[in-house]
Amino acid sequence: MAEDKAQRRWLARQACTRALSGHLPMTAAQRLESFRSGGFDLDALPDAYGDGPVRDLETRVAELLGKPAAAFFPSGTMAQQVALRLWADRSGSNAVAMHPLSHLEVHEREGYVHLTGLRPVWVTREPRQPTPDEVAKLDERFGTLTVELPLREPGFLLPASFAELTEVVAAARARGAFVHFDGARLWESTVHLGQDLATIAGLADSVYVSFYKTLGGISGSALAGPADFIAEARAWRHRYGGNIFQQWPAIYAAMSGLDTVLPQLDSFVAHAQTVAAALSALPGVRVHPNPPHTHQFQIWVEGTAAALDEANLALAETEQVWFIGGWRDQTPTGLAMAEVTILQGALSWSAEQVTEVARKVFQR
Questions:
Q1: N or C: which end of the chain has fewer CB within 10 A?
Q2: What CATH superfamily is the domain 2-25+263-363?
């Protein structure tokens, strides 16, 4: 039944002509055609164990982030575990200061604990970014501080300002710790923080970025940092099984995202404010945070996730319009929550159109 529903959802989304939240899916043929139309030479030699286009992407990402070197990883989970392992070796401490709602803790089955022997130290349990004072006053030693930018689970939250982020990093350094940024969504953080990618990444010793969460890639990530650190990370990437024979589809998709999506992110973040304001004006609808820190935010409404997903799917099947999917029940509140992602397809939606479609879905 779950597979049938997933297929129904994919087919409905694929047939849509408009989408408020997220990417509309592409078939393999459509993806290949996007490579051709994007100027990629599909008759050229593919990569082999990390050479050719893989090295080209690594060089480009290192330059964007202002780091001496970068390494491509098939997954962010692998990249982050390698990074934290290396900083633990260099600091002499297996304690990693982090947030309990971080991706490392919530979505990676505690791989950093079971595979690397690290242990967490919670900076704060509050559903927000940690403060400089909390980092400074942690009551035990830690070798690495990891900061997720933005922190997804409580609403894609960023520090209040770049100055506050700078103070958080300084507090960790004063404790003799290294700093790693989980920047899976760092790309869209520049507007709120008021700095370019290289300036933000320059605060940290290492940074991980994703190529599919925002940029619309197939898979893959990059880890950037000092040259000797990245050289050692490549060795651990091999040990973890990440030195894959050919990865050109993921590489081309990542390059395409850097070419076409990254330059538009400022407009996505700006339009998220318009969409959030329109949704929050509806009775019984809450948006968090309001205004959004990035082009992603949470929407909370009364009802069940199953009913809301079905209403959204019915609209997609009858009108070829995708509103917001992926609802989750928030027991015991009686509310359901979904994450909204504003991308190119949403830019044509006016506040009035957002309101009109939202009412159609909620009335269902």
A1: N
A2: Aspartate Aminotransferase, domain 1 (3.90.1150.10)
Taking only the tens place, the pLDDT of each residue in 106-130 is 999 999 999 999 999 999 999 999 9
**What whole-number distance in Å separates Cα of residue 79 and Cα of residue 101?**
19
CATH label, 45-259, candidates 3.30.465.10, 3.90.230.10, 3.40.109.10, 3.40.640.10? 3.40.640.10
97: β partners: 121, 145
> How far apart are alpha carbons 92 and 114 in whole angstroms?
18
pTM of the model: 0.96
Pairing of strands 119-122, 95-98: parallel
Q: CATH 3.90.1150.10 spans which residues of the chain? A: 2-25+263-363
E strands in 248-364: 285-288, 296-302, 321-322, 328-330, 335-341
Sequence ranges of the chain with CATH classification 3.40.640.10: 45-259
CA distance 190 to 165: 12
Q: Determine if the peptide bond prior to 120 is cis (ω within 30°).
A: no
Bridge partner list, 335: 302, 330
Residue 176's CB is within 10 A of a number of other CB atoms, namely: 12
Q: Mention every residue, 6+ apart, whose C-beta is less than 8 A from residue 36.
A: 42
Quick: pLDDT tens for 279-319. Answer: 999 999 999 999 999 999 999 999 999 999 999 999 999 99
As a whole number of angstroms, the distance between CA 364 and CA 76 comes to 38
The length of the chain is 364
